[in-house]
Amino acid sequence: MENLSAESVDPISMLKRYDHLENEGHWQTVWADWGIHRFKSEDQTSPTYSIDTPPPYPSGEFHMGNALNWCYFDFAARYKRMRGFNVHFPQGWDCHGLPTEVRAETTYKVRKRDLAVAEFKDLCVRLTSEYIEKMKKAMKMMGYSIDWNLEYKTMDPNYYRLTQLSFILLFKSGYMYRGEHPVNWCPRCETAIAEAEVEYVESEGVLSYVRFRSEDGHLAIATTRPELLPACVAVAVNPQDERYGMYVGKWVDVPVFKRRVEILADEGVDPKFGTGVVMVCTFGDKTDVKWQKKYKLPIVKAISEDGHMTEEAGRYRGLTMKECQEATLNDLQREGLVEKSEKIKRNVGTCWRCHTPVEIISRLQWFMKTKDMTDEVVNWTNKITWVPEFAKHRMIDWATSLDWDWVVSRQRVFATPIPVWYCARCGEDIIAEKDWLPVDPRFEKPKVESCPKCGCQDLIGESDVMDTWMDSSITCAVHAGWPGNPESFKRLFPADLQPNGLDIIRTWDYYLMVRHLALFKQAPYKAMLINGMVRGADGRMMHKSYGNYVEATEAILKYGADSLRQWAAGGAATGQDIPFRWSDVEHARRFLTKLWNASRFAIANLREYDRATEEVELQVLDRWLLSRLEKVTKEVTEAFENFQFNVALESVRDFTWHVFCDQYLEAVKHRFYSSDMRDRSSRIGAEYVLYRSILRVLQLLAPICPHITESIYQLLKPSTESPRSIHLTPWPSVKKELIDEEVEKKGDVLVAVISEIRREKSKRQVSMRAPIKYLHIYAEQNERKMLDDSIETVKRTCNVGSVSIQPSDDLSLGTPVQEYANIRIRLEF
Ligand SMILES: [Zn+2]
Ligand SMILES: [Zn+2]
After folding, report:
1. Other CB atoms closer than 10 Å to residue 448's CB: what's the count?
2. pTM: predicted TM-score of the whole model, two decimal places
3. pLDDT tens-digit profile of 66-86?
4. Which end of the chain has the least Cβ crowding within 10 Å, N or C?
């Protein structure tokens, strides 16, 4: 199908069974040829609509969570294009990061430390490019209307030049600083990690009651981390705790280490935990960090960056933390200092990448001054539209809960270099100038000879690199054309829509916010669209290790992208978690088959109606359907405007399946079969309604099912002057004048009577086409009047010889029509 243009598709062959894969692949190629998803930068008149999507991490796999994410982006993009917007829908790749380093090591069977930095970096770039191609293929199979001309990769020098530029600007405006502060540290990944990357999990630990010798005897202190004894710099009690009032200000000896530390009183101590006396270690947790600062306690670094005990740990030096914990407990026990031990559950912070418990260590790092921005972040968050509304509170809760500034330096290889050198003599920071970028201080010298402060010529390049969120949190500005194209920046910044998953509000959305606020004093997005997470059929999160994992391409190959896209649209309300069930995808495909068959019927029967005219003679049922069609258009439009894709899909599906196919089509089929020339105007009326309704349904469905709607549109479109693609047709506006409540009431009664006759036939096990000699309808005056106009339709549709409509109070006559208890029918064969 590769090189076919749309015109070469043989309409007759397409009137057979609909082949999803063939059609979908075909249109994907044709759309690319036609360039219909391209952002038209030359178009200065249409309003723009820019969508800033989270660049995914290139893992090589496109899972259901990704599929759901991108479906939401694409529904919005396709809908807005039909609304006349010049849509800017780029695609990026967030390339850097530790997982790639780990995978490069296993894939190429190398060890990072055995290779030169540049050599290892090249392997990472190679692997990332392969992964990107795989994911791109799946994205194309899904039919996403991404403008691939706007693709970007954060590992490209062209991109990371801008990451570096933003770093320099933020340094100059005082937002970036270097300092020694405690940070979360993953001893396995051997890097600092931000608070957003710490995941808290409940785990079991042992709480040991350890005896500390004091001036007046001893104090028992409960701890889960005896390996931190060497870093114990004080103990603390609550000032209200009467048991310990007399100890405050006195000293205790740290067992094993025999170091003498003070007993402090602090409101933060929970008297109910353990014995009510706690160790202050540098650093066991964030409270320790606070107390160390507050009481100006010394910092003892007992744990090394790779998770081993340092020389501060004396006889335990070189042990892992776990080994040290066991050894310390043994020693304490031998000395009779452990009063008791009990199991407890506690929350432990772990690394989001490798799930190793994180430590808090102090080391020189680069930080962005984000903590002072909290009020600003909250204000802007409140100004933005959030769909659903509850997601906004995640952002606010997160921003207000942060204790520390954002640590932006990492101790890795595959990442954006920090554009800084240091003077070996005086320690002065030498920040790169804008025109040095991109630059890698790990290999390159600065473009100054010597330290501007002391003249020393020994300048050392920064070997730390940036957090990957530093790359991806300037995307809004970058796609808008910053900094080279101010004209475009004015049009495209801030982004109109920022769609992403619930799971990355505290990272992506938060970092985007602080970076752009700091750089441009403005929030980077106007509206947030948040999707929930995908769960497996068993209700658990979809995950490979749970055995409930399905790759998107597997579902596409089985049922077609348009079916999978319906699952994404209809699976749950926007923002709710969505279970992946094969039955939903199967149901979606059944719907497409129904639509295809109805369209086949319509197209085969559109013979007489001249598609240019609106002057046709319409019957009650025709006007009934047209009225319902306008109402469904209104519902679907409102749903898309509010990003309620499930409502949009259900409305159009319900209308198509039940109202259009089951009720209308069944009731008007006879108008196409008549050979009587006198019935010509009746036939033309039905053709007109068929044509209008199918075209409308295709338009309403096009953002969700772009392929099949295109296939049918090409067969249905009136002339060569019509828009080339369904996706280039303007979104239908609601024709209020066609909404007619009276006609709807009449049509509803008529449809109900026809359905009742069919039910009666099937109850009596006669064929639907079997002639009925006599149909008696018993009804009140009001209903009789409603039926009068359309009794001919009942006769024709149900193959009835004669009909009588009469008043009757005798409730024993006939069968009541569903939903209309005061209408009854009786059939004579
Ligand atoms: Zn880790
Ligand atoms: Zn110097």
Report:
1. 14
2. 0.91
3. 999 999 999 999 999 999 999
4. C
